[in-house]
Amino acid sequence: MRRYLFSTGLFSAVLTGFALLRSLREHEPFTWRTALAWLSWGISVTLAVGAVVDTRRARRGIDVAADSPIADKAEKLYKKRLDRAIES
């Protein structure tokens, strides 16, 4: 759970969401630019959560999609987890 809360991508997306909500409270008209900003925010949140999920899967030794930014590091993350388990 803390990996979701403390990931920098998700933290950044949440702060951006607060800025978008603040713009709605100021009674500004909803324009196409606002719609694109909300769409961009949704994509950012999705990508941030996806990166955390991929990291978690890689650490557990589960296959990660080849297009994931974690795919190159998956084996290293799993080996690191195994080394920690052996030390404990």
Structure description:
By secondary structure, the protein is mainly α. The protein is 73% helix and 0% strand. α2 (8-25) packs antiparallel against α3 (32-59) and α3 crosses α4 (74-87).
The mean pLDDT is 81
For the biggest sheet, the summary is: none
Q: What letter string, H or E per element, gives the SSE order?
A: HHHH
User: What Rg do the Cα atoms give?
Assistant: 18 Å
Roughly what percent helix?
Answer: over 70%
Shape: elongated
Number of helices: 4
C-alpha termini separation:
22 Å
Structural domain count = 1
List how many beta strands DSSP finds.
Answer: 0
Structure classification: mainly alpha
User: Which percent range describes the beta-strand content?
Assistant: under 5%
List the helices and strands and how they pair.
Blueprint: H1 2-5, H2 8-25, H3 32-59, H4 74-87
Helix pairs in contact: 2-3, 3-4
Question: What would you say about this model in short?
Answer:
The chain has 88 residues and is mainly α.
Structure characteristics:
single chain, 88 residues, mainly alpha, 4 helices, elongated
